[in-house]
Amino acid sequence: MYPAFGSLQVILLAVLCVIATLVLCGRPRNLPPGPRGLPIVGNAISLLKGALPLVYTDWSKKYGDVFTVYFGPRLTIVLNGYAAIHEALVKNAENFSSRSPSHAMRTPDGKTLGIAAEPYGPKLKEHRKFAMMSLRDFGVGKRSLEGKILEEARGLGDEICKTEGRPFCISQMMQNAVSNVICSIVFGRRYEYDDMAFKDLLNAINGVFSRSFAVIFAQVFRPMRILPGVRKPFQKLKRNQAKLINHIRDRIKEHEDTFDPKDIRDFIDAFLLESKKRQGDENSTFTEQEHAAIVYQLFVAGTDTTSTTLRWALLYMILHPDIQEKVQQEIDSVLGPNQEPAMAHRSQMPFTEATLAEVSRLASVTPMTIPHGTSNDTAFRGYNIPKNTSVTVNIWSVHHDPNLWPEPDKFDPTRFLNDEGKYVKRNEVLAFSIGRRVCLGEQLARMELFLFFTSLLQRFTFKLPEGAPKPSEKGIHAALHHPVPFKLIAEPRD
Q1: CA 137 to each of CA 143, 145, 264, 270, 328: distance values in angstroms, whole numbers, following the listed order
Q2: Is 183 annotated as a binding residue?
Q3: Which of 332, 71, 120, 112 is nearest to 224 (CA)?
């Protein structure tokens, strides 16, 4: 028995050596430098030891702003720092605006790409153009959507009033309010806060975004899915994705049953209309599968990133009451106690706008973009990068670069004000990325951040509960950068 077992070990070792040799010999030449990895697993073990954006930022000090890592046998180029990211995504957009083929594995069904995972090409351009036009049709950038956002802000304020000065966690309330905005655009409806189906959906979204980096690796590197610490979280992720996609398919079916081409109610109807126009065209990309995938991406992306940014904003307000007071003074001077905010007021509130810019920078809710991919074999900064290589864009490295932001871990809105107190936009804030893959929902998110934030601070002063320790400003790194759970008190303002 034991000799046979020893022979099996030798055979397995030999197989692993052969695979490792093939992988190493097959690696392209003249790649950017990077940390030495292990056979088969590459750098995966080292990358699991800390928060990925922080690890990448630290490695950039040793290997430079462009370096190479391996997730198993998968080659990834990591871009750090504003200069390298801008050079790749803007100046070399033709080469760095695609997605790598492995990205399909991150989608709910592992194959339908939607907009987020689609490689750069005619199909992506067509679907992005359609989505942007449809979002505009349903109010993005218009007063009609401002009204919907303010309606949700009023509802959120009413829920906060029910706490009657008691300490509470605002996470669920905030997510309800923000999610209802995208629901009104995509589904043509909003949900009551106590709707159990709505709560289940939001819990599923939380499950998708709270996945660990180990589970993120497992989405593209299948062997990791069998590891004991990864298998159950990965299965939970798939269940959450299935719950969301099934809900979306149910809403699409309801829309199909009540569809009226003369009454386009929301994004789902708009997609159905476009799909029906193309019936008989065997090359049409407006399919049922793409419909569900795109709505899934809009719904998920339109919920958690904005609500998380707003939670960071309130955390910084309770930790920096002097800044909260200045924001409120500005709101009072422009709006008074009764006038509701509008996007037209934003230019009259430079300190408020500077505060939100600093929240976006310091919190870095999306510390890395969805991985890009190279469209061609390309030369970049003296290195050769093959076609279809995954490219990770480390936004965190820009937002926490001490050469751009003195004392980068300090919350300081004056970074965005000139000597006259006017707001100065800084291109180095990349909360929505840059280049051809810039976030589709940027305009919507900016509207929500300004209107929710000003509405809340016009109505309440937020404080720490008496005797409570100060919450940590160091967040939790997962798919998004979340604040550590905290409680606050909301005092109604006269």
Answers
A1: 12, 10, 10, 9, 33
A2: no
A3: 71
